[in-house]
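ok, trying the design again with the full structure, not the truncated one.
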């Protein structure tokens, strides 16, 4: 069941995507093209940004970076973390923090090494390939960074909320 706090946060994400479609990219949790490569958080084998130093993903400045003109982008989960004013805890990923913020609870894993099981334990809202087919087609057919692509993501958020955060109803 999705909480009121999660719905409120996701509505803020929708507003931000509509206002800043060029700062939206479902291919990256958070990406700052102007940062020194040495300053960028590293991605693990699963494409999740692993933060060892919480200062690499600051709270309020992250929102300012996303709404600025430097080309920084984030996906739905990255925007959720930024808009919540959260710092990503050392050793965790933006994905883990975003999932926590929207109330996603992973199923207990029987085989942590199994990539298919790991994939299915991820929140579907944060992975375009797990969106309903019509949304996936619309998203992939839209130009990257366009208002149309951001609007498709907003529709996905609406459907996620309407499904109560239940992946079987999404």
């Amino acid at each position: 069941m999705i909480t009121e706090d999660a719905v409120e946060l996701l509505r803020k994400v929708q507003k931000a995507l509509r206002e800043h479609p060029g700062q939206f990219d479902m291919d990256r949790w958070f990406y700052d093209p102007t940062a020194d490569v040495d300053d960028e958080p590293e991605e693990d084998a699963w494409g999740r940004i692993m933060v060892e130093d919480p200062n690499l993903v600051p709270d309020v400045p992250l929102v300012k970076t996303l709404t600025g003109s430097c080309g920084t982008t984030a996906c739905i989960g990255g925007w959720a973390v930024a808009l919540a004013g959260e710092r990503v805890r050392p050793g965790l990923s933006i994905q883990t923090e975003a999932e926590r913020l929207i109330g996603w609870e992973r199923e207990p894993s029987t085989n942590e090494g199994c990539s298919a099981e790991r994939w299915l334990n991820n929140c579907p809202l944060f992975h375009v390939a797990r969106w309903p087919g019509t949304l996936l087609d619309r998203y992939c057919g839209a130009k990257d960074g366009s208002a149309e692509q951001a609007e498709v993501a907003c529709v996905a958020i609406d459907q996620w909320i309407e499904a109560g955060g239940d992946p079987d109803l999404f």
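Keeping the full-length input from now on. The two ends are 13 Å apart (CA to CA).
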